């Protein structure tokens, strides 16, 4: 019997080139919703809209079982190749077991440690602030990110994207896109410095 191993990025890359070919519309509007509806019924999953995070142990276990089954059955869709990346149950469980149990965001006094939390955990969660991929104008980009960085409650920044760079559209695949991405990183770091949060995670 082969002992399952955690998958590498190379394994996933190869499967993205060779997996089953499926149209994106079929995936989005047929495969995913139909599978989710069937598994919801199979595991008797009923969510209480008044309780965002479930605390019932049976429901938590059933959600995990349904999620695992859905991942193994459906796989993950790769938009670039229009193929499905498939995983076995053993591969998924081996990857979960091999996953890190902690990660450090930032450095120095601004470093925060990310660890798993249960619904009963009294330890506060890490708070990520920022426009999170939303387009920001060039003239306001620095100020917007500084406003998040100077909030004591915010632990790390999830930055926005520049609408333009020197007035030009950062078209994907163009030199302007590269310039915009570099500028975003430089400006967010500058915003953190101005807020007195040098070393804050990004």
Quick tags:
single chain, 202 residues, two-stranded antiparallel ribbon, two-stranded antiparallel sheet, 6 helices, globular
Helix-and-strand structural type: mainly alpha
Order of helices and strands: HHHEEHEEEEHEEH
The span between the termini is 43 Å
Number of domains in the coordinates? 2
Shape designation:
globular
Our estimate of the beta-strand percent is: 5-15%
The radius of gyration is: 21 Å
Overall average pLDDT? 94
Query: Roughly what percent helix?
Result: 40-55%
Low confidence ranges = none
Number of strands: 8
Total of DSSP H or I helical runs spanning 4+ residues: 6
Biggest sheet strand order reads 1-2
Folded structure, characterized:
Helices cover 43% and strands 10% of the residues. The protein has 202 residues and is mainly α. Strand 3 (103-105) and strand 4 (112-114) form a beta hairpin. It folds into 2 domains: 9-98, no CATH class; 108-115 and 120-194, no CATH class.
Please outline the helices and strands.
Blueprint: H1 9-18, H2 24-42, H3 57-74, E1 76-78, E2 83-85, H4 89-98, E3 103-105, E4 112-114, E5 128-129, E6 135-136, H5 141-149, E7 156-157, E8 161-162, H6 175-194
Parallel strand pairs: 5-7, 6-8
Antiparallel strand pairs: 1-2, 3-4
């Amino acid at each position: 019997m082969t002992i399952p191993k955690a998958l590498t990025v190379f394994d996933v890359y190869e499967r993205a080139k060779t997996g089953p070919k499926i149209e994106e519309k079929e995936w989005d509007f047929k495969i995913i919703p139909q599978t989710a509806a069937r598994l919801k019924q199979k595991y008797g999953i009923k969510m209480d809209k008044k309780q965002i995070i479930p605390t019932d142990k049976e429901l938590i276990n059933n959600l995990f079982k349904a999620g695992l089954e859905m991942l193994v059955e459906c796989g993950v869709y790769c938009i670039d190749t229009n193929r499905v990346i498939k995983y076995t149950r053993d591969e998924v469980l081996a990857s979960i077991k091999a996953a890190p149990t902690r990660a450090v965001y930032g450095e120095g006094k601004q470093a925060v440690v990310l660890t798993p939390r249960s619904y009963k955990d009294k330890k506060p969660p890490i708070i990520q602030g920022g426009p999170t991929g939303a387009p920001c104008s060039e003239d306001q980009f620095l100020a917007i990110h500084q406003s998040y960085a100077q909030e004591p409650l915010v632990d790390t920044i999830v930055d926005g994207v520049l609408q333009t760079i020197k007035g030009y559209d950062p078209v994907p695949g163009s030199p302007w896109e590269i310039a915009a991405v570099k500028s975003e990183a430089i400006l967010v770091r500058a915003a953190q410095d101005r807020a007195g949060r040098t070393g804050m995670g990004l």
